Amino acid sequence: NIPMVLHDLYEDVYYEVQFLSWSMSASGGGFSYTRSAGTTGWINVTGFDNGTFFEKADYADYTDSTNWDIVADSVAITRADSEGLFNPYTDTGFSHWTDAMPAGTEWAWGATEEDDQDYTSWYNAVYQSGWGPAYALESSMEGYTDGHTMSMHLIEEDLYYDVEFHDWTCCAGGGGFSYTRYQVSPDGISIENTLSANSSDTLTIILGGSSLSPGEYSAEMIIGTSDTDTPELVVDIDLTVIGTPVLVLSTDSLDYDSLFIGLESLQFVELLNSGNDLLTITSVSSNNSEFQVSLEDDSLDAMESTLLTVTYVPVTDGAISGQITIESNDLTNPTLTVQLTAVGQVPPEIELSVDSLEVFVSPEDSTTRYFTISNTGPNNLVYNISMDDIGSQTVTFTKEDWADWTLPENQDRVSDNLWITRGDYNALFNAIYEYPEDHPHGPEGTQWAVGPLEDIEMLWFDSFV
């Protein structure tokens, strides 16, 4: 299997991923892989290579090699009294239109270690910053904060340099500029230094980083030297990252307002592990039995969350309070609490003076009857009245295939102005005002909604189609 590289854009960390299995098509979505971090994500060496500083003064003679930064036998960098950089060995001067300019080099904006580099000419690379040279390369330019480092690649020699610009004279002002260049490997790690006789260097190795997952990491630092007896030294580097679980609650208080005794109300607290190791919730308890707790999961991986359900079951008439205590292996905050408040109320009690009404009237008459609704409880009774017409007429209408829609028996005559029917195809229509070939969508004089009549207040009405 060919490995892949995963770039975590949030943490700017790279991993090598080797897939072990993958379920094809709609077979369940299973997969597995191994993931290992690259050493550039957790090792940083400083104090290595002090760099080469170069400066060309304004109006200095660019044909004089003392005003060139000679990088290799065939590559030097300089600048005329204006415009951009060029290679005086092979270029007659700067050109906007040459792909390799300065000749023998290609450039990208940003340090070499950045993995998404797009190498091009020096001029085009400067504009990758979003600015021209006057802003991008002048370190004292007010308001510019994006850094001033570019990556230079010597094509034939296959050497990489980080070039940190310090000054840039703009606009035909003499062509002055200065920078410090550091030779680096393709992944951006500094690779060259020189020690004079009887001298030493102190290197600082920084191990770890906030984005590392818990576990063990190993690498080798290989030091190549010009010592003929010891051309290579290997330093083994081992790092153990001890994880830290961190418990975060979505809220530290819940208010249930008022609730009648006999009912119950649920609220939720999200528990998130914002750390980088397994979080274990060892205890969740309530100090008031009227607040009951239920936890979905007591083990959370990094950045995983679960819900704590807190149910208020009132027994007491009046205001009460309580506290939920959550204990975990979070070393910084091993105990967190959620404060609870609620008001229980004895419910009202309804009584009706009658439980049924039976009335006989002629079609043209009406009559009036009275009944009483009483509340015998201690708290307010809220009531509403609706009618369920259980004795109303139900009509079942059928129009058979190819039946003549113009005949009365093939029309549901709902009212004097609404006769619902259908032609041999298309949708329903109102036979009083419409024809099947009109392809109506109403039918005329109607609106429709999906759902039962009892939900009429919540339904959305539109045309039949």
TrEMBL record:
Coiled-coil spans in chain: none
Cellular component GO terms held in the UniProt record: cilium; cytoplasm
Keywords of this entry: Cell projection, Cilium, Cytoplasm
InterPro entries: HYDIN_VesB_CFA65-like_Ig, Ig-like_fold
Record localization: Cell projection, Cilium; Cytoplasm
Pfam families named among the record's database cross-references: HYDIN_VesB_CFA65-like_Ig
Domain HYDIN/VesB/CFA65-like Ig-like: 245-339
Name of the featured protein: HYDIN/VesB/CFA65-like Ig-like domain-containing protein
Taxonomic placement: unclassified sequences, metagenomes, ecological metagenomes
